[in-house]
């Protein structure tokens, strides 16, 4: 019974045989095709709302919260004087909301969810483009 | 220069840098394609497609893996795809039983290569490619898994089976004395 080729002998056999050699003009043909081929670059993923937008939204929500807090309910005017028109708007808001901390939490949660969805979709798109 | 160092230059528009990569890896890619397609013309087409795809998707090369492994995985998928298209037009039976011999016979060990090619031509094409990855390109099993998309246990089984089959073919072709000479040469 003949001894089998071991791993090292097979490796040497393959190494001696080496790689196959393509036609001498193959590299030139490849480069000719590459010359007219663009590199696919991932499109920059721009969030729908940028950092400045989120700061603006945050400030606006904060201003409404503070305003609603300071305006108080219509029956008990708050500590800060404000124009009747503005106070009326805040009173209306508080009355409509019934419980203003609740709607604040609701609006803030919705904003956070939209923010996360925006970022997740952006990251997913960027990942697909990398692949 | 290392391929990882060439990539930023290519992405910056240096076409010659990609030429360096083509020169360096064309034999490796061509050999993979030839093992899988067993036809020089198809292998050259698949090699061209491999490099064009690699160029197009160069941004997607993360740099965590070896560049050669990434390129091999493109070559493997491209050659498999070419093979499927060819099977749609050719007779499967003809391809199975009359694989075309590779055309190039250059190099100092051309007789050795011819014998090895002849023996490998009796193996399933993907088994021949896996043997080539393991013994010629010295890829580790984990790298072959990355290249082929097969599971690690599947790769190990294929390697074991293909190695046995290759030895049988070499024995059938050469006989004991000639095989000893081949081993001396190797």
Structure description:
- The complex is a heterodimer of chains A (131) and B (186).
- Chain A is built from five helices and no strands.
- Chain A has 131 residues and is mainly α.
- The radius of gyration of chain A is 34 Å and the shape is rod-shaped.
- The two termini of chain A are 52 Å apart.
- Chain B is mostly helical and 186 residues long.
- Chains A and B meet through helix 1 and helix 2 of A and helix 2, helix 3, helix 6, helix 7 and helix 9 of B.
Compose a concise summary of this entry.
The complex is a heterodimer of chains A (131) and B (186). With 131 residues, chain A is mainly alpha-helical.
Outline the secondary-structure elements.
The complex is a heterodimer of chains A (131) and B (186).
Chain A: H1 7-17, H2 26-35, H3 51-71, H4 84-97, H5 100-130
Chain B: H1 3-11, H2 15-37, H3 40-56, H4 67-89, H5 92-97, H6 110-120, H7 125-136, H8 141-148, H9 152-185
Helix pairs in contact in B: 1-2, 2-3, 2-4, 2-7, 3-4, 4-8, 6-9, 7-9
